[in-house]
Amino acid sequence: MVSINPESKSRAVNREVLSELIKLHGKTSLGGKLPAYDGRKSLYTAGSLPFESEEFSVTLVDPEKKDKEKAEREYKITILIAGRTDLYHLQQFLKGRQRDMPQETIQVLDVVLRESPSWNYVTVSRSFFSTTFGHRGDIGEGLECWRGYYQSLCPTQMGLSLNIDISATSFFKPVTVVQFVLEFLNLRDASRPLTDRDRVKIKKALRGVRVETNHQEDQIRRYKITGITPVPMSQLTFPVDERGTRMSVVQYFMQRYKYNLQYTSWPCLQSGSDARPVYLPMEACKIVEGQRYSKKLNDKQVTNILRATCQRPQQREQSIREMVLHNKYAEDKFAQEFGINVCSDLVSVPARVLPPPMLRYHDSGKEKTCVPSVGQWNMINKVGRPPSIEKAFTRFGVPALKNIPTIIFGADVTPPPPGEDSASSVAAVVASMDWPEIAKYRGLVSAQPHRQEIIEDLFSVTKDPQRGNVNGGMIRELLIAFRRKTGRRPERILFYRDGASEGQFSHVLLHEMDAIRKACASLEEGYMPPVTFVVVQKRHHTRLCPEVHGRRDMTDKSGNILPGTVVDLMICHPTEFDFYLCSHAGIQGTSRPTHYHVLYDENHFTADALQSLTNNLCYTYARCTRVVSVVPPAYYAHLAAFCVRYYVEGDRSNGGSTPGSSGQAAIAREGPVEVRQLPKIKDNVKDVMFYC
């Protein structure tokens, strides 16, 4: 374990401190070991250190500061032995002889393989970006797209596997702040004052961004933006001496630097604290290169970034191969230090293609059928009136669901957009209401604390002065609605849960299964239908490409694998029940399969049965005559949460409120934010799939 004093929140500064330690003392002070460091508290070595605890001292010099005394800063580094990792448990886990995953051991090896790129590239979560990886594309409004790669070490049935994929994300363009503002606000005339709304937008976009000044030829200083002044620069004054004599920023720059400021009708950037602010004219500042734009992109920017990075499967596979070769894992000194060998070849895995279901529809009271072709079907001229796709359903209910009343839930939590620190998360749950067809869903939504992943309102108990304890919650309400619609109580539950990451699996399962159990028990004593709990993951970096590109019996028109392709061997979890299903046909780029991870299964589905059921469900999506990539109940839950958030916040382009802008974000940082409850959905709307 490593502690650095004074403490820094910057991984880059921490790495620089540790690098200086190694330069001063060499590896001798660490017993000849080359350490791998995560930039925070953890440092790992291949073998024991010659001490249990040791303190070191280093001095860093800031080259941007003229004054030598102010430029030098001393750091105290304490290294304490916190534990030793045993690879034996990892070996037993990978062989299926131990169920508990040794997460810490895997994390150690992951940090080792991330050490070299962490020094050379811009790190964003598990991805690394650099302008050396390809052309940086302008995506509009002061932003550009950088290319990079994603890397993660994960346990699979083959052993430890390194997941590599091509990545891209948005960065601030390294331009003057004036140019950024002009592009960001789509302005042509910089002489016109900014409106209050424009000022709020700029404040929100630039908060936390680092800039460097250019008004002093012999000195470049860097600052972090904390805000925007409320008044234009022409009206902005500050005290210049102890007597309180005030001077305008415009006058100060002319007298001190002989710098004639031009954009005096615009506000200044503000750095430092409110008590001791530093005012920076926008025209004297340039945005430091390599800063990611972490807030929400608009539709045009998303389109531009997709256009710049879209690759067909053959191109993407080649790009991944080139990236692996570029990384030169065999020459990585940290991998060598820890005895890690990385194979540079892609893995060939066995796959199956599930057949499409037979679709039924009604025409003038008569039941007809059609068979999808490569993930789509055509209803033109097949019905006497415009179809209500909602009534189209498959025969997957025979025999999987027909004999036992089954309710299928979809659940998701949608966090607020990046940067909206005061907004609540929105949880949504939908449930099928038309067993055995399984095509119509009823949806409910609930607000919950900011970025909380566990769904709070699945089951609730409130106290009523007259009635005492009153049971409620979304699961209970949907179970009641199912019985009212079908005349049967559900005897089997299938719960598709979207939005949970691997680190949240046990937490989500524990709390939400408990809520499902309590909701059932509240309806009838002893009522405990078997539950299958499946996590649905779309945001991952596993890509499946055809073994032979261009073969029409193995690919669709886009060159992607065929719809219905499922993989449940080699790249899946060593001991748990999971599979990758690419249910949809490709349109452009490389198809992303959906990862289904079965956390709990009291219905004892075979792999084939659950995979086929999930694939068939993907043909029942109400919006289009195509098979979709995510199982519809999970898809509907995501849409419901998104729609409700949009309804509540209003159309921002028409002046709707923007949570998190202006003073709300400051309040959010000071303490917990009260959850703003959502308006109740009317009963007649609940029965309509309004999110479609």
From TrEMBL:
Residues 176-289 form the PAZ domain. Gene3D superfamilies: paz domain (2.170.260.10), Ribonuclease H-like superfamily/Ribonuclease H (3.30.420.10). PROSITE patterns: PAZ (PS50821), PIWI (PS50822). GO terms for biological process: regulatory ncRNA-mediated gene silencing. Residues 406-649 form the Piwi domain. GO terms for molecular function: RNA binding. Keywords: RNA-mediated gene silencing. The keyword Translocase does not apply. SMART domains: DUF1785, PAZ, Piwi. The keyword Thylakoid does not apply. It comes from the Eukaryota. Belongs to the argonaute family. Ago subfamily. This is Protein argonaute MEL1.
